[in-house]
Design goal:
This protein is of the alpha+beta class. It has 6 helices and 6 strands. The protein folds into 2 domains: 3-85, Beta-grasp domain (Ubiquitin-like (UB roll), Roll); 89-163, [2Fe-2S]-binding domain (DNA polymerase, domain 1, Orthogonal Bundle). Strands 1, 2, 3, 4, 5 and 6 form a 6-stranded mixed beta sheet that branches. A hairpin with a 2-residue loop joins strand 4 and strand 5 (62-65). The chain is globular. 39% of the residues are buried.
């Protein structure tokens, strides 16, 4: 990184497979950078304290709260947003089950919830309902009551196992 001024730095990162370079304010959060600089508005600003999960994105393969990370901390990183994982088809089955079970109602929390769900099913293809609830507890949803979210994730996991002969 090269300091351009006291308040801005140059960064280069890969977002959804595309390398981008920008000058960013040193205090700009990653979610603000994605939304304002790149027009990737899937991650939402909710609580701005890392509690609600609406700003969830992946950095180097791990989900993080985009409101708690500065854009400059992502210099050299691989960032994936809901737009990227959706366009790739990676979460198509989860999206289908969320739609089928009305687990997405207003949609504000949905991008973060889907990224958290994708992480869960990747790391634990056989989660119990309690494990699903525990993993998803970091994502707030004011509309669904969570039962439909748990149902959607459970059915998607079951379908993935059936598709792979029990190995997911």
């Amino acid at each position: 990184m090269t300091a351009l001024t006291e308040n801005a730095l140059d960064i280069t990162l890969t977002v959804n497979g595309v390398t981008v370079s920008r000058r960013v304010a040193v205090r700009q959060h990653l979610v603000d950078f994605l939304r304002e600089e790149l027009g990737l508005t899937g991650a939402h600003l909710g609580c701005e304290h890392g509690v609600c999960g609406a700003c969830t994105v992946r950095v180097n393969g791990e989900i993080v709260r985009g409101c708690l990370i500065l854009a400059i901390q992502s210099n050299g990183a691989r960032v994936e947003t809901i737009e990227g994982v959706s366009d790739s088809g990676e979460i198509a089955d989860l999206q289908h089950e969320f739609h089928t079970r009305n687990a997405l109602q207003c949609g504000f929390c949905t991008p973060g919830v889907l990224l958290a769900a994708a992480e869960l099913v990747k790391n634990n293809p056989h989660p119990t309902r309690e494990e699903i609830r525990k993993h998803m507890s970091g994502n707030y949803c004011r509309c669904t009551g969570y039962h439909s979210i748990v149902d959607a994730i459970e059915v998607a996991c079951r379908a993935r196992r059936a598709k792979t002969g029990g190995v997911a």
